[in-house]
Design brief:
The complex is a heterodimer. By secondary structure, chain A is mainly α. Chain A contains ten helices and no strands. Helix content of chain A is 69%, strand content 0%. Chain B is mainly α. Helices cover 68% and strands 0% of the residues of chain B. Chain B is globular, with a radius of gyration of 19 Å. The chains are: A mainly alpha, B mainly alpha.
């Protein structure tokens, strides 16, 4: 019986209640992509609006002239276009979902991280900042993220997106092995 | 009504579409650091289950829509060096951050403060990329640049064949996961793959 579910005090045990079947969620994402494909014919994309928004943060540091003269932001300037509103919608949708099942809870150090690295909030926040920086730099170099390449591009059988998908998983697994080792989960 | 819708109406449709995306990310469990990181530790296969199902279901629909002339494919160019280097960095960053850009944004809404700090990191990463953009464009994105190519064109293997192959692979992987792992996607100690 013990193996039929996570420990009630574990993270998975707390959160599993409001979760939907992953295959149904995947199928729903697939159907959503048809609808978006048919209705507006614009692919999914999250990292593009984040990079455009970054120009706003860069303005006070670099000065507005440097930002206006930057080749990247000239090509992808900040504006409340489809992609920016989609990004805002993603936040709102998740917020409504979390409020609906009352699972909102502040988290600074997640349980898997604590098991490996301890409870230091500072360390986790520095790590999250660095990880965020690396991931977005990578996304822009690759031309998309898990949404634009991973889902939207892969389902259209784009070569670039499958190279992205397979490389991402290989390097992710390697990084996870280096960071977490091959230790088994602690016995419960 | 003619499709696709363009202009102002299309722009505002992004909000309901984005909201559905956000709800699905949250309810799918992928707005959770543990679920993402444990995918790469091969301990929780939620991410793979969601992504493969989305690719097959979405792909069949997109293929049908395109076949009926209702939509254009939107293919990202295969600048293979840039895509491979970017994806490698992305994989490293995804495990360190514990989210990808979309699930990170969804996680901020669930109360994840480290996802929020990581979002600031993403903005910093974007600034760095914008500064290196001219160099990357000339020195990296021009290497092994095959253009907006799709697997059927590249290989000569027809579309339907790709979907059969993907469905068979997904079917075998899902069957193994469901029989060797317990219901929560955690490795069943009595029935382990490794």
């Amino acid at each position: 019986m013990k193996q039929n579910g996570p420990h009630p005090d574990s993270d998975a045990g707390r959160k599993v209640a409001g979760r939907w079947n992953p295959y149904l969620v995947g199928a729903a994402l697939g159907v959503l992509s048809w609808v978006v494909f048919a209705v507006v014919n614009i692919p999914l994309g999250i990292s593009t609006p984040i990079s455009s928004a970054a120009s706003l943060c860069a303005t006070p540091i670099m000065g507005s002239e440097a930002v206006a003269g930057n080749a990247y932001w000239t090509k992808f300037p900040f504006k409340w276009d489809y992609h920016m509103l989609f990004l805002a919608g993603t936040f709102l949708g998740s917020l409504l979902s979390v409020l609906a099942n009352r699972s909102f809870r502040l988290e600074t150090v997640p349980s898997t991280w604590v098991e490996r690295f301890g409870k230091s909030r500072g360390k986790r926040l520095i790590e999250a900042f660095l990880g965020g920086g690396i991931i977005l730099f990578g996304a822009r170099m690759a031309g998309g993220c898990t949404s634009g390449h991973g889902i939207s591009g892969s389902l259209q059988l784009a070569l670039s997106s499958w190279v992205f998908f397979l490389t991402l998983f290989a390097f992710g697994a390697l990084t996870a092995f280096l960071l977490f080792g091959n230790r088994n989960a602690p016995s419960r | 009504m003619t499709l696709p819708i363009t202009g102002e109406t299309a722009r505002w449709l992004a909000i309901p579409f984005g909201m559905l995306f956000g709800v699905l990310l949250h309810r799918g469990g992928v707005a959770d650091y543990n679920v993402i990181v444990n995918q790469f530790r091969l301990r929780d296969f939620t991410v793979l289950k969601i992504m493969l199902t989305a690719i097959i279901v979405g792909g069949l629909g997109a293929w049908a829509l395109h076949g009926m002339g209702h939509a254009e494919y939107q293919i990202k160019p295969a600048n293979l060096l840039g895509v491979a280097l970017g994806a490698a960095l992305f994989g490293v960053g995804m495990v360190i951050y514990g989210y990808c850009p979309g699930t990170g944004v969804a996680a901020i809404a669930t109360g994840s403060l480290h996802a929020l700090v990581g979002f600031a990191g993403m903005l910093a990463g974007a600034v760095l990329y914008a500064l290196s953009y001219p160099w990357v464009e000339t020195h990296i994105q021009t290497v092994a640049a095959l253009g907006k190519i799709r697997l059927p064109q590249l290989t000569g293997i027809p579309e339907w064949c790709w979907f059969v192959i993907l469905t068979v692979i997904a079917g075998v992987v899902f069957w193994l996961l469901e029989t060797k792992f317990n219901n929560n996607g955690e490795r069943d100690p009595n029935n382990s793959l490794m």
